[in-house]
Amino acid sequence: MKAIGYREAGPVSVQDALIEFETDIPQLGPKDLLVEVRGISVNPVDIKVRARMQPEAGPRILGFDAAGIVREVGTETTKFRPGDQVFYAGDITRPGTNAELHLVDERIVGRKPSSLGFAEAAGMALTGITAWELLFDSFMLKEGEGSGEAILVIGGAGGVGSILIQLAKKLTNLTVIATASRDDTRAWVEKMGADRIVNHRNPLDEEMKTLGISPRYIAALTHTDKHYEAIQKLIKPRGRIALIDDPGTLDIMPLKPKAISVSWEFMFTRSMFQTEDIEVQHQLLNRVADLLDDGTLISTVNNHGGSLSTDNLQKAHELQDSGTAIGKTVLDGFS
């Protein structure tokens, strides 16, 4: 089968940063689905893996989000049959989705939203899981809670921020404040449903002071090290901070006087460690599909890069790497 990957870790700007090659069709495990990939998306994790992780034996296939059609099922599968349309965010310990066929554990797979095409559905999986787990696992909220409290989403126009704004607005009673600095990103987070918008190019504690709001929940989605001092000042006592980025160091001692809780959200944890509750991701993806189909949530896809090829995928990586991407970038499968 055809696949796209990389041989040498490094920037996407170098020649042959991404290559197309032939590889064997993966062999099913008992709980696996073999999926014909019809759509994929690009995430920051693709950029980080390609830049930092040297392949051990031959090219490494990138890609985590996918939507497609189940072609074969393992002997112990119970949730899907051949012909079913699915979407999911994969497993960082396995080969990626930038391929004609992909192997995935059915317990982290959801039914594809019927209202979306394959590429657009692929764009909703990884960020949907991340935002859901951040809101309901890291922040320990329940649906309908949050009255009188606020959440600050730092990096509101990114993929995770775009869906987190919507989930917080639609499924909780939190006041949703998002950061954005350009006219186009401000318009985007307003479209996603943010109640208030602040400029992350300015000190966030000063921006929040003008609103007169001290949020109990802060989703630090990008540049946490840059905003960390301001976060300490603006967060409400006994508040919660959840991060998804990778600050070099994080001194939590200044948070002690306010008794602040800090956690990382990493949506690959359940699949990486085969946790007892791994099936939660199957359930939440089905819920996200329902919310998309009934119009509660809207698509966060903002760029369609054509069919899967080295040129198109490289352009998508370059856009993601630029720090200017809004929402999600997706591609169809191989033409």
Write the layout of secondary structure elements.
Layout: E1 2-6, E2 19-22, E3 32-42, H1 44-52, E4 60-61, E5 66-73, E6 85-88, E7 101-105, E8 109-111, H2 118-122, H3 125-138, E9 150-154, H4 159-171, E10 175-179, H5 183-192, E11 196-198, H6 204-211, E12 217-220, H7 224-234, E13 240-243, E14 261-264, H8 269-272, H9 280-293, E15 301-307, H10 310-321, E16 328-332
Helix pairs in contact: 3-4, 3-9, 6-7
The radius of gyration computed from the alpha-carbon positions, rounded to a whole number of angstroms, is 20 Å
Main sheet attributes: strand count, strand direction, barrel closure: 7 strands, mixed
Low-confidence stretches: none
- What is the distance, rounded to the nearest whole angstrom, between the alpha carbons of the first and last residues? 13 Å
Number of helices: 10
Question: What percentage of amino acids are in beta strands?
Answer: 15-25%
Characterize this entry briefly.
With 335 residues, this protein is an alpha/beta fold. Helices cover 30% and strands 24% of the residues. The radius of gyration is 20 Å and the shape is globular.
Structure description:
By secondary structure, this protein is an alpha/beta fold. It is 30% helix and 24% strand. The protein is built from 10 helices and 16 strands. The protein has helices at residues 44-52, 118-122, 125-138, 159-171, 183-192, 204-211, 224-234, 269-272, 280-293, 310-321, and strands spanning 2-6, 19-22, 32-42, 60-61, 66-73, 85-88, 101-105, 109-111, 150-154, 175-179, 196-198, 217-220, 240-243, 261-264, 301-307, 328-332. The strands form 3 sheets. Strands 3, 5, 6, 7, 8, 15 and 16 form a 7-stranded mixed beta sheet that branches. It has a 6-stranded parallel beta sheet with strand order 11-10-9-12-13-14, with helices on both faces. β10 (175-179), α5 and β11 (196-198) form a beta-alpha-beta unit. α3 (125-138) crosses α4 (159-171), α3 (125-138) packs across α9 and α6 runs parallel beside α7.
